[in-house]
Amino acid sequence: MNPQTLSLRALLFLGLWQTGRRCLASAPELKIQPQKIAVVGAGIGGTAAAFYLRQEFGPGVKIDVFEPDTVGGRLATVKFGDQDYETGGAVIHPLNLHMKHFIEKLGIPPRKDVPSKAAIFDGKELTFEESDWYIVNVLRMLWRYGFNFLRMHMWVETVLDKFMRIYQYQQYGYSFSSVDKLLHAMGGDGFLTLLNQTLEETMMAEGFSQVFINEVVSPITRVNYGQSVRLNGFVGAVSLAGADSGLWAVDGGNRRVCSGLLYISKTELITAKVTSISIKVRPSKSGTTTNFYEVNYVGESGSSHSLYDIVVIATPLHQGKSDIIFSGFSPLSRLTTPDATTRLSPL
Ligand SMILES: Cc1cc2nc3c(=O)[nH]c(=O)nc-3n(C[C@H](O)[C@H](O)[C@H](O)COP(=O)(O)OP(=O)(O)OC[C@H]3O[C@@H](n4cnc5c(N)ncnc54)[C@H](O)[C@@H]3O)c2cc1C
């Protein structure tokens, strides 16, 4: 077994981790069953990873999740009085099948709908005000924006349809060595083009009117991401999906899902910040060598380290965010290796 291949497979990077059951090579196919796995970060990425790793490798593997802060990461709440309010990832799209699956598995109910109405204020006056009557809303939209609104929904649907392919890739155990490659597999060149132009440019090219972009699209991107329509076209499409109907949230806070996943996957939560990860090599029974990882961390009781067969990084790697030093390998060069899309085969 090529040690490079093993480490590439073993170290999965989870900026976009929404992994399905068979994203890793399935346990029976593995020649070497991992004994210990580390997951860095207990946001939804890390806790979902722990859940799927447990499913994949069964009860025999020890899974440690490192988190210096609150479980949930950017799924965060703040308490005012007796009420918890979402301050991070607040709403879940109906096509987020993983979150649906998780709350069913955990027996956590969705939050009851709080009826609300939308209005658009341009700084001087309300340019649109939602009515209780669906037909009135449709007519108002048609009157002011023609078919732009309907076309926006259709455009977002097209993007989401392609996005849904991710579930199939996960089901059949595909992995991708870069985000670009994953997006290309989902949406072809169209998705990559979206990455390289602004939402405004994208929508203008699709024939949407400037008035519609200013009065409807811009408030949506401002409310959802605090950004103008000059944000990246792909992120912009995701932001517009965040204005779809059917959005929901978890009763008591979305981050409950993260704690629940840690619990049912029987992982050990280590309250510590990972400072460095280095790759090591050891001889295997068969006479070849295998890779493993030394994870160094700092917790309340000081510095320590542990050894793992697999390390999953489920935290952004930006400088100033996770500050993890990688020794003996560079995760970013691995993310851009030209080996392209690979279907995981037995190790
Ligand atoms: C204000 C806001 C609103 C949002 N709204 C929505 C929304 O409505 N709907 C939606 O679907 N998404 C929304 N998102 C996006 C969504 O919240 C994130 O995509 C998602 O929570 C990211 O999860 P993650 O696990 O990848 O990362 P994170 O949640 O960031 O988790 C990473 C974890 O790693 C930990 N960590 C960092 N460094 C280390 C280290 N060195 N060692 C150990 N642990 C470390 C961090 O403490 C953190 O807990 C929103 C995000 C924000 C910020």
UniProtKB/TrEMBL annotation:
<dbReference type="GO" id="GO:0030328">
    <property type="term" value="P:prenylcysteine catabolic process"/>
</dbReference>
<dbReference type="GO" id="GO:0030327">
    <property type="term" value="P:prenylated protein catabolic process"/>
</dbReference>
<dbReference type="Pfam" id="PF07156">
    <property type="entry name" value="Prenylcys_lyase"/>
</dbReference>
<feature type="signal peptide">
    <location>
        <begin position="1"/>
        <end position="25"/>
    </location>
</feature>
<dbReference type="Pfam" id="PF13450">
    <property type="entry name" value="NAD_binding_8"/>
</dbReference>
<keyword id="KW-0274">FAD</keyword>
<keyword id="KW-0458">Lysosome</keyword>
<dbReference type="InterPro" id="IPR036188">
    <property type="entry name" value="FAD/NAD-bd_sf"/>
</dbReference>
<keyword id="KW-0285">Flavoprotein</keyword>
<dbReference type="GO" id="GO:0005764">
    <property type="term" value="C:lysosome"/>
</dbReference>
<dbReference type="InterPro" id="IPR010795">
    <property type="entry name" value="Prenylcys_lyase"/>
</dbReference>
<comment type="function">
    <text>Prenylcysteine oxidase that cleaves the thioether bond of prenyl-L-cysteines, such as farnesylcysteine and geranylgeranylcysteine. Only active against free prenylcysteines and not prenylcysteine residues within prenylated proteins or peptides. Involved in the final step in the degradation of prenylated proteins, by degrading prenylcysteines after the protein has been degraded.</text>
</comment>
<comment type="similarity">
    <text>Belongs to the prenylcysteine oxidase family.</text>
</comment>
<keyword id="KW-0560">Oxidoreductase</keyword>
<feature type="domain" description="Prenylcysteine lyase">
    <location>
        <begin position="128"/>
        <end position="331"/>
    </location>
</feature>
<dbReference type="GO" id="GO:0001735">
    <property type="term" value="F:prenylcysteine oxidase activity"/>
</dbReference>
<protein>
    <recommendedName>
        <fullName>Prenylcysteine oxidase 1</fullName>
        <ecNumber>1.8.3.5</ecNumber>
    </recommendedName>
</protein>
<keyword id="KW-0325">Glycoprotein</keyword>
<keyword id="KW-0732">Signal</keyword>
<dbReference type="InterPro" id="IPR017046">
    <property type="entry name" value="Prenylcysteine_Oxase1"/>
</dbReference>
